[in-house]
Write a structure and sequence with these properties.
Blueprint: E1 9-18, E2 23-25, H1 30-33, H2 37-44, E3 48-50, H3 58-73, E4 82-86, H4 97-105, E5 111-115, H5 121-135, E6 141-148, E7 166-176, E8 185-188, E9 196-199, H6 203-206, E10 216-219, H7 221-243, E11 252-255, H8 260-269, E12 277-278, H9 282-285, H10 292-303, E13 311-318, E14 322-329
Parallel strand pairs: 4-5, 4-6, 11-12, 11-13
Antiparallel strand pairs: 1-7, 2-3, 6-7, 8-14, 9-10, 13-14
Helix pairs in contact: 3-4, 7-8
The protein binds coenzyme A (COA).
Length: 334
C-alpha cells in the first residue's frame, strides 16, 4: 500500500499588503469616459484607486506584500515550502511569476506555481494551501494575489476604466492546533465566461493585430452585477454552513472588492448582523482582482485591531466566471 503523510490543521499566520504610492482620483478618469465623480461613487463606491508607475512590476508589488506578510508571520523565509501566486496580469507565460518571486525572496527551492482564477485567485490559493497542509504536502504556504491591471485597461472604456486598479496582498498559512480555515466552497459558471474578457490574445500580435490594439479587460457590467448579487450571497451561506457557523459568530466579512452595492446586497441577503465588520476598502483601492481580498483584510486589521483572531468570511469571484470562499480565523496580532 502507498504510504501517506499525516497533515495538520492550518491557519493564517499573517497578512501583508502593498499598494503603489500614486493615488488616482475619479477626476483623473472621468473625461475620457464621459462620466463624473458622483456617478462612479454612486454606482461603485470608488473614490480613488492606486496605479503603479510604468517601471513598477507585478513582481515588485508581490515581493513587497510577501516580505511584509513573512516578517509579520514570525516564520523564516526558508521555512516556506510552497508558494502560490494568483494573477491575471503577469506578462510572461513562462517561467512563472511564482518562481521569479521565490528567487527574489531568497528561497529558490520552494515549490512554486501561478494560478489564474481572476478575482477569486486569492481564495482559490487559500483553499489549496489549507488542503496541502491538511494532506501533509506542505507545512508553510505563502499565498499572494497581485495585479497590475492598469497595464490592461482601456482608459476610454466606460465599463472598466474606473473600476480596476493595482496592488498586492499576501498571507502565510501554517500548521495550527485548532482548525483555522474551513473547507473551501468553490466552483464556476463557465457558460458565462464571455462576461469578463481580456482580448485580443498575445498571439494576435504574431498574426498581425493592427497597431494600437492591446489586450484589454472588458466586461458586461450588468451580467456580472446580477450574477454576483444572486449567486454569491448563496455561496456565502454555503460557506458558513460548511464551516459550521452562523452569521453572528463572524467578526468580519471580507468579500472581493468589486462594487459596494454588491457588498451591501450580499450582506443583506446573508442576514449578517450589525456586529459584523464589513470590508469596503474598494472606496480607496478600486478593484485589484486577485489582490483585493488580502489588501482589504490588511486594511481592516489596521483599522480594527480587535478583529485579530476572530472569524471572517472570505469570498472572491470574477472572470470565468469563477468563485471561491472560506471562513478563516484572522491572523493573530503581530
Ligand atoms: C459597471 C457598473 C458599475 C455599471 O453600472 P450599471 O448601473 O450597471 O450601469 P449600466 O450599464 O446599467 O448603465 C446605466 C446608465 O449609466 C450610463 N453609464 C454607463 N457607464 C457609465 C460611466 N462610466 N459613467 C457614466 N455613466 C455611465 C449608461 O449609459 C446608462 O445610462 P442611461 O440610463 O441613460 O441609458 C456595474 O454594472 C457593475 O459594477 N457591475 C459589476 C462589475 C464587476 O464587479 N466586475 C468585476 C467583477 S470581478
Amino acid at each position: 500500500m502507498i504510504k501517506v503523510r499525516e497533515g495538520s490543521n492550518s491557519r493564517m499566520l499573517s497578512v501583508g499588503a502593498y499598494q503603489p504610492s500614486r493615488i488616482v482620483p475619479n477626476s483623473e478618469i472621468v473625461d475620457k469616459i464621459d462620466s463624473s465623480d458622483e456617478w462612479i461613487r454612486q454606482r461603485t463606491g470608488i473614490e480613488t484607486r492606486r496605479f503603479a508607475d510604468a517601471d513598477e512590476s507585478v513582481l515588485d508589488m508581490a515581493e513587497a506584500a510577501c516580505r511584509q506578510a513573512i516578517s509579520r508571520s514570525g516564520i523564516a523565509v526558508e521555512d516556506i515550502d510552497t508558494v502560490i501566486l494568483a494573477s491575471i496580469t503577469y506578462p510572461f507565460q513562462a517561467p512563472s511569476a511564482a518562481t521569479a518571486l521565490i528567487a527574489r525572496l531568497g528561497n529558490p527551492k520552494a515549490a512554486a506555481f501561478d494560478i489564474n482564477a481572476a478575482c477569486a485567485g486569492f481564495c482559490y490559493g487559500v483553499g489549496m494551501a489549507n488542503d496541502f497542509i491538511r494532506a501533509g504536502s506542505s507545512k508553510y504556504v505563502l499565498v499572494v494575489g497581485v495585479e497590475k491591471l492598469s497595464d490592461f485597461l482601456d482608459p476610454y472604456d466606460r465599463g472598466t476604466a474606473f473600476i480596476f486598479a493595482d496592488g498586492a496582498g499576501a498571507t502565510v498559512i501554517g500548521p495550527s492546533d485548532e482548525p483555522g480555515i474551513s473547507p473551501t466552497i468553490w466552483g464556476a459558471d463557465a457558460d458565462s465566461r464571455d462576461a469578463i474578457l481580456m482580448e485580443p490574445t498575445w498571439l494576435a500580435f504574431k498574426h498581425g493585430a493592427p497597431d494600437g490594439i492591446w489586450p484589454n479587460i472588458s466586461q458586461q457590467g450588468q451580467t456580472v452585477f446580477r450574477w454576483a448579487v444572486f449567486s454569491m450571497s448563496k455561496a456565502g451561506i454555503r460557506i458558513m454552513e460548511a464551516a459550521g457557523i452562523t452569521p453572528d459568530q463572524l467578526g468580519a466579512f471580507i468579500p472581493h472588492q468589486a462594487n459596494v452595492r454588491i457588498i451591501d446586497s450580499m450582506a443583506r441577503e446573508m442576514k449578517l448582523p450589525e456586529s459584523v465588520v464589513i470590508a469596503d476598502n474598494i472606496r480607496t483601492s478600486g478593484n485589484t482582482s486577485a489582490a483585493s481580498v488580502p489588501i482589504a483584510m490588511s486594511a481592516l486589521l489596521e483599522e480594527h485591531p480587535e478583529l485579530h483572531g476572530q472569524l471572517a468570511l472570505l469570498i472572491g469571484y470574477g472572470a470565468g466566471l469563477v468563485y471561491a470562499g472560506q471562513v478563516v480565523q484572522l491572523p493573530p496580532k503581530w
